Amino acid sequence: MAESNDILELKFHGNGIGPDTVKPHEIAELIISFEKSLLYTIKQEHPEIDTQHLLFSFHRVDDKSLDIIFKTLKVKEVVFGSYSLIASAITTSNYNKLNSDTIESLREITRFTKKYDCLGQFKHNDQSIATFNKHTEVVFDKSNELKGETRIYGVVVRVGGESPTVHFRVDNDYKIVIDVKEEIAKRLASKLYEQVGLIGTATWDYKSYKVIGFKVSDIVEIDEKPVKESFKELRKLIGKYWDGIDDITTVLG
């Protein structure tokens, strides 16, 4: 029996809705959409958390109308905080704090209420914290989405998993967990605890400008040779231009 403070619930009622009035795959799709919306929001708000870990789980479907029940397993405050953020967005009809992936998953859920002309609720410990219906429109303001091609630099602190992820500490400031292809994971595994650069498409939090998502296309290996040694090698190539200068590092500051 799950503890009462662990319960998250996606409930549909009205117009005769129930487990025996919808197709099984529709219930499965609702579970997937709920999972995605919550995980996308957790990753947005807490990019240091590996969302491939089992943070919450499907618990059961009740036939009091159609109740899909989940229970939290880890970082409960984080899970509930993101859940509350989604609920608040629905209640206020202001989705500016949610990312486009969360928005699309929520649209899948609200499409269900449109199809069956029923009411939907997000509940916590049997208390309703948000309601929606066939008239609810989940919209995303593209101006709040910051994406672009860039490079980010940091330290590889962990690589692995059945679906490979990289834990990447950015400038000793914060950590993000990035989904990567197996080939990229293998290359980064050899760079564990080393400084590297990642080339790809970044998504930034429009409030803090922190990187909250990254799609890696390539790796930049950083040469950590001492500065003077690097200049010595460069001098071999263009030394004639530095004749008469004893210490080039003093010239360059």
Question: What report would you give on this structure?
Answer:
The N and C termini lie far apart (67 Å). Helices cover 32% and strands 32% of the residues. It has helices spanning 24-45, 76-92, 100-116, 182-189, 227-238, 248-251; strands at residues 7-13, 56-62, 66-72, 119-124, 127-132, 146-160, 165-170, 174-179, 195-204, 211-221. It contains six helices and ten strands; from the N terminus they run βαββααβββββαββαα.
Descriptive key words:
disordered C terminus; 253 residues; single chain; alpha+beta; elongated; 32% helix; OB fold (Dihydrolipoamide Acetyltransferase, E2P); 2 domains
Task: Please outline what is shown here.
By secondary structure, this protein is α+β, with helices and mostly antiparallel strands. The protein is built from six helices and ten strands. The N and C termini lie far apart (67 Å).
Number of strands: 10
Number of helices: 6
The SS-based structural class is: alpha+beta
- Coarse morphology: elongated
Order of helices and strands: EHEEHHEEEEEHEEHH
Helix content estimate:
25-40%
Strand content: 25-35%
> What's the alpha carbon Rg, rounded to whole Å?
24 Å
**Terminus-to-terminus distance:** 67 Å
Unreliable parts:
248-253
Give the mean pLDDT.
84
Map the helices and strands.
Blueprint: E1 7-13, H1 24-45, E2 56-62, E3 66-72, H2 76-92, H3 100-116, E4 119-124, E5 127-132, E6 146-160, E7 165-170, E8 174-179, H4 182-189, E9 195-204, E10 211-221, H5 227-238, H6 248-251
Antiparallel strand pairs: 1-3, 1-4, 2-3, 4-5, 6-7, 6-9, 7-8, 9-10
Helix pairs in contact: 1-2, 1-3
